Amino acid sequence: MTIHADTPPVSSATGRPLTKRGQETRRRLLEAAEQVFADLGYHEASIVKITEHAGVALGTFYLYFDSKQSIFEALVIDLNSRVRHSMSEAMAGATNRIEAEGLGFEGFFRFTAEHPALYRVVREAEFVSPATLKLHYERIVDGYRAGLDAAQRDGEIAAELDTEVVAWALMGAGELIGMRYLLWERDAEGRPPAKIDPAVLAGMSGFIARALRPDTTEGTDR
Amino acid sequence: MTIHADTPPVSSATGRPLTKRGQETRRRLLEAAEQVFADLGYHEASIVKITEHAGVALGTFYLYFDSKQSIFEALVIDLNSRVRHSMSEAMAGATNRIEAEGLGFEGFFRFTAEHPALYRVVREAEFVSPATLKLHYERIVDGYRAGLDAAQRDGEIAAELDTEVVAWALMGAGELIGMRYLLWERDAEGRPPAKIDPAVLAGMSGFIARALRPDTTEGTDR
């Protein structure tokens, strides 16, 4: 399996970069795949169902992807870059790292509420394409860790924290909070919530702020 | 689906409690199921493969379980009670809640190293039996939360923490740390580690201790 991620998509048939119209068709196929994989699961999903859902001819599919496996992997990569985008967009307004963490989670939860497929697709990736699953987690953690390292250098978070371990811990915390309070939650009409309960977000942000904040004796000579 | 958990196992054929020998056969079947589901996944696994692996006649299976789905659910429940046992056993020596948290994770990681099937089975449960998956998480969280609530009453952890949210966050943190540093880790010979890297455990315990510890101004009148 080769993953060309964060590089412009190319045609699987010609190997050349896609035109603007080609990119739109590829996007339509990915959106259809998100729906079909989430509704049916990997085994029941098929290329025919994806192209039907996308309103695209079956033959056209192969200009973009080689197989069901390859569109599945492309979908994980695509959801991954979009969830990271949603997180960094949310973090942009922060004035320090601890605030940024809280906002990053808000971005993650917002994306999860809009794309409940994220969880199902990522969990199936464990069986369908373990390497892509790994990539998904590693990319989020790498981003996290870089932010934590920078904050540590600036004295914004405690010096003693192991930023790699903390990055994995925070990602896991976010994942299960999202599962419990978004995917499992239903309102009186049985609908999933449009956004996470602000009290839960506050509880989560408070927990993270406590864990990350520098000791009061740290950085006093700054 | 009916889940009779934490009650003595009964024969699926007679509805009566199992004899000691019956319990041993049931245990053999569950151990075989753990191996078979972990190696092959739910779809490829079969009752025949499980009974062959257990060295038990096919007909005997139905004295204990009704179907592949029912032994899968029983396995999740069984792994769940064993991982919780491993955690509480590890916590028994703690002198306070923050130390207990660190030891509880050690118990969780020890069980994960010995039963790598836990992760695969739990993740497949999302697709095979969502209600059992929910039960698995909720039982761990309920135990956690009860401990955190008691510690909060005793002033051992910060009063402001939302113990329910924290319990979900901690479980998620433990899950991904276990995935990254046990399931994905390989030594020079390509073998999974027998136990978690002590530095990772220390990083995790330190992170949790920081998040939970009471503010220095708290409890000074105690």
Q: How do you describe this structure in short?
A:
Chain A contains 9 helices and no strands.
Keywords:
homodimer; 222 residues; mainly alpha; Tetracycline Repressor, domain 2; 9 helices; disordered N terminus; DNA-binding (chains A, B); Tet_transcr_reg_TetR-rel_C_sf (chains A, B); DNA-binding transcription factor activity (chains A, B)
Topology, please?
The structure is a homodimer of 222-residue chains.
Chain A lengths: L19 H25 L2 H8 L3 H4 L6 H24 L5 H18 L2 H12 L1 H24 L9 H21 L14 H15 L10
Helix pairs in contact in A: 1-2, 1-4, 1-6, 4-5, 4-6, 4-7, 5-8, 5-9, 6-7, 7-8
Polypeptide structure, described:
Two copies of one chain form a homodimer. By secondary structure, chain A is an all-alpha fold. Chain A has a domain at about 70-210: Tetracycline Repressor, domain 2. Chain A has nine helices and no strands. In chain A, helix 1 (about 20-45) crosses helix 2, helix 1 packs across helix 6 and helix 4 (about 70-90) packs across helix 5. Chain A starts with 19 loop residues before the first helix and ends in a 10-residue tail after the last helix. The interface between A and B is large, with 43 and 43 residues.
